[in-house]
Amino acid sequence: MSKADNLFINMCQKILDEGFSSEGQTVRARWEDGTPAHTIKTFGVVNRYDLSEEFPALTLRPTAIKLCVDEMLWIWQKKSNNVNDLGSKIWDQWADKEGSIGKAYGYQMAKKYMFSQGEMDQVDNVLWQLKNTPYSRRIMTNIYNFQDLSEMGLEPCAYSMTFNVTGDKLNGILNQRSQDILAANNWNVVQYSVLLHMLAQVSGLKAGELVHVISDAHIYDRHVPLIKELIKRETYPAPKFKLNPEVKDFYDFTVDDVVIENYQKGPQVTNIPIAI
């Protein structure tokens, strides 16, 4: 069993056993048929992944690693808010007729600010600091911009990263206000693990720990049977992760620079209903 599998199973079991049910409460989210999408939730989940020990892809079921890396690069590298720049169809339900999700995600990453070293966007500020002031305690991004919330197709779920260099290790804290555990947990863990590996490589560092902080970790009511079946499955050792060592500029990375080897996994969970 990988450590990522163990964390996931324990988290899900705790939510099922000790979580708070929103049944009887007024909720915003709806299923496609208009029915209220209730959840069982736990507040303040913190999971730690040591990327120097293993790559945290679940083996209980496959994680579409290339697609989730493509989404991460769409936000962090392309700094796009248009789904036509994305390889998957996941975001289509939040896009307008032109494909825009408004002033969300990549739009915020592309927004420039005046920093002490000059005007640049948040990603370039992180890259500059990792190169010039790696031991700064101010290396972070935040895309939850209150001024623009009303013009976002979807308010950011994973909204901030704080980076910290310890010795030769680059660590990161991913803050997430809300997470659909079945649909998105390992997806986010994998994509931000890859981000840490990429930023570490171009900064002359090694990937250290990813700490994932989830304010509202929830399992939707229609996902409960799927989760119960999933966490009883056989598990396997973590896969091996490789990143093209020739890439020295973050903006040169592509999904093809990410190589996953020996990825044993169970069958996919299909037809997962998504609340919106």
Question: How would you characterize the overall build of this protein?
Answer:
The longest helix has 22 residues, at 181-202. Helix 2 crosses helix 5. The protein is globular. It has helices at residues 3-18, 65-76, 106-110, 122-132, 181-202, 224-230; strands at residues 20-21, 39-50, 112-115, 118-121, 139-142, 158-166, 169-180, 206-220, 240-243, 258-261. It has a 6-stranded mixed beta sheet with strand order 1-2-8-7-6-5, with helices on one face. It has 276 residues and is an alpha+beta fold. The chain has one domain (3-261): Thymidylate synthase/dCMP hydroxymethylase domain (Thymidylate Synthase, Chain A, 2-Layer Sandwich), CATH 3.30.572.10.
Q: What is the CATH architecture annotation?
A: 2-Layer Sandwich
CATH topology: Thymidylate Synthase, Chain A
Briefly note the structural class of the backbone.
Answer: alpha+beta
Strand order of the largest sheet: 1-2-8-7-6-5
Number of domains: 1
**Multimer state:** single chain
Estimated helix fraction: 25-40%
Number of strands: 10
Order of helices and strands: HEEHHEEHEEEHEHEE
The fraction of residues in strands falls at 25-35%
CA distance, first residue to last residue = 33 Å
CATH class descriptor name = Alpha Beta
Name given to the CATH homologous superfamily? Thymidylate synthase/dCMP hydroxymethylase domain
Largest sheet: 6 strands, mixed
Query: Runs with pLDDT <50, length 5+?
Result: none
Shape: globular
Mean pLDDT across residues? 97
Give me the Rg, rounded. Answer: 19 Å
Number of DSSP helices?
6
